[in-house]
Amino acid sequence: MEKIIFVGGKGGVGKTTCAASVALMYSKKNKVLLVSTDPAHSTSDLFNIKIKQKSELYRYSESLDIMEIDGEKEAKLYLTEIKKQCNLMLSPVIMGEIQGQLDRAVSSPGTHESAIFEKINKIITENQSYDYIIFDTAPTGHTLHLINLPKTVNIWMNTLIQKRKKILMLKNMKFEKKDRIEDDKVLNILENRRDNLLKISKILGDPKIVSFYFVMNPEKLSFLETKRGIKSLEEYNIKVDKVIINRVYPDSIDEFWQEQKDNQEKFIEFIGQEFIGKEILIIPYYRKEKKDTLDHIGKIILSENKL
Ligand SMILES: Nc1ncnc2c1ncn2[C@@H]1O[C@H](COP(=O)(O)OP(=O)(O)OP(=O)(O)O)[C@@H](O)[C@H]1O
Ligand SMILES: [Mg+2]
Question: Most-buried pick from 29, 191, 271, 289 (CB within 10 A)?
């Protein structure tokens, strides 16, 4: 089984940079897939490439594939699938009533996120040939919250399955029929969906397979968001392995920058006290023109990992 890494954090803290650095570092000796789930894709900008086919694999090097998920395309696919399944389960009258609602749902953010999550599930379950799959997530952090979705939906699915079985049994009794309940199309859809959700739930809940890296900057707002993010993930029993403090100022002789640096240092100390038990990594502020920046960042983040 591959190892899955989610890189999360507030907007602009350096998620894409860190995810790309880790992907490049691992790809030196492993087969890696880097996936951007953020609708405002900057992975291709960072790698200086043009990815024409969104949601498809782009071969960057022999050992590194990149994919930028197209939220709009996924939302449409997702709703088409839902419509197909509703068609089997609901009467034409009800279908007619909800058709418009389903069509409008394409542009709602919740649908995009659910569809992206569905795509993440597919990527994880259908791409077993990679040693590492790294997800660069959207800044809202909602993608991370969706990780808990399979568990919630599973409970709901089980109720639906029981209800459907009851209806089928009653139908058999009422019309004195002996239709095999297991052959029912609707029941099969529900059970398949539940089994897929259970599978993905099991993978996502396994700390041996899934790691979470939270990227932050050493300042108040970023810290508060990180604290909230980690707390809510841990409420879902998802452990955050690494906290990456990015953009730490170098030593400075200038009074203004020295003040900034002193502030950062205080924060870094505070972060260390707050996030006990996690690996905390410090990444310096790099000059933009430095070519080997990603290499340095990757080395810092993976210092303790065997490649
Ligand atoms: N250590 C660093 N030193 C200097 N610049 C950095 C560093 N890390 C990131 N940057 C720069 O900061 C900007 C934001 O970084 P990045 O795109 O990785 O953040 P992000 O968290 O993915 O942002 P978004 O939330 O918009 O997706 C980029 O221009 C990047 O080059
Ligand atoms: Mg980004």
Answer: 271
